[in-house]
Amino acid sequence: METLMRNVFQSLGKNAAAHKLAKRYGLRFGAGRFVAGETIRQAIEAVRTLNADGRIATLDHLGEFVSSEAEAREAAEMCIKTLEAIAEAGVNANLSLKMTSLGLDISKELCMQHMRSILACAKSRGNFVRIDMEDYSHCQVTLDILRELRQEYDNVGTVIQAYLYRSEQDIRDLNDIRANLRLVKGAYKEPAEVAFPDKADVDANYKKLIKLHLDNGNYTAIASHDEQIIEDAKRYIRERGIPGDRFEFQMLYGIREDLQRRLVQEGYKVRVYVPYGVDWFGYFMRRLAERPANVWFVLKNLFK
User: Fold this and answer.
1) DSSP per residue over 97-109, as a string?
2) CATH number, residue 97
3) Where does the secretion signal sit in this chain (predicted)?
4) What is the pLDDT of residues 63-118, one digit of tens each?
5) Domain span at 31
6) CA distance 53 to 50
7) Is the pLDDT of residue 297 over 90?
């Protein structure tokens, strides 16, 4: 049953008609738990609240199904406006983005043009940009672009997904550019030809990747709500004497706030991924697919 529900939500997240319907009706049915709002102002206020109790953030203006250069340009402008809003408000946050929203599927050149503008804006404000990893079909081009951009900018990193077989080799290959990586389990539906189908194998690989990247001496963002994974990482960090400026823990907005606060109290850096924008549906569906227990939260909201 859980697998069926997960597949349904993952399929809905890629459905353009469902996206349009969600935009029409706004942040309802519980999505507001996981999405900070539809405007920059709402997102900045959410970051202020996080900063007030010791958490930092990464802001993501949500966007998918970009099919025109005009839409890609609008998405790039929103990234720049987000960086400007962060600087103006003086909050502690950086930027996350998806390159498909910047026109990657239209042309790599268009995407690179937007990426350079965004990174230049971030650099001028002393900020950092994280390129989110998308589905498997975009994995190699994302890493190729990261490598190219790192020749010009040192304020950019990306994400590696532990459920992919290739990820260990990707981390080894990226060591020469000292890549700043967010390590995650992975939230897309991928075939067994490219991804571990069993959770136990994903978890084991995730632990291995965390240790590999930490041992390489590169900045490691450990993005998980899994306490067993977090405790394993904390133990390894203590044993190896890894300094606090070489890693951070990351979690999603609205999920396991108790654990976020506990880690802050223990002295760890905790960054919260704060998504916002009108194109929130795909992100919301992936959160439901990741943890179907969230569905009951949504169903309760339907009857309020």
Assistant:
1) E-GGGGTTTT-HH
2) 3.20.20.220
3) none
4) 766 889 999 999 999 999 999 999 999 999 999 999 999 999 999 999 999 999 99
5) 1-35+280-304
6) 6
7) no
What 8-state DSSP symbol labels residue 54? T
Catalytic residue positions? Answer: 132, 182
What does DSSP assign to residue 142? H
User: CA 258: distance to chain centroid?
Assistant: 20
d(CA 38, CA 190): 29
Q: Which of 95, 93, 53 is nearest to 257 (CA)?
A: 53
Handedness of CA 282, 287, 293, 296 (dihedral sign): negative
Mean pLDDT value across the chain:
88
Candidates 134, 178, 172; CA nearest to 154 is 178
**What angle do helix axes 167-174 and 139-149 make, rounded to 10 degrees?**
10
Query: Does residue 189 carry a pLDDT above 70?
Result: yes
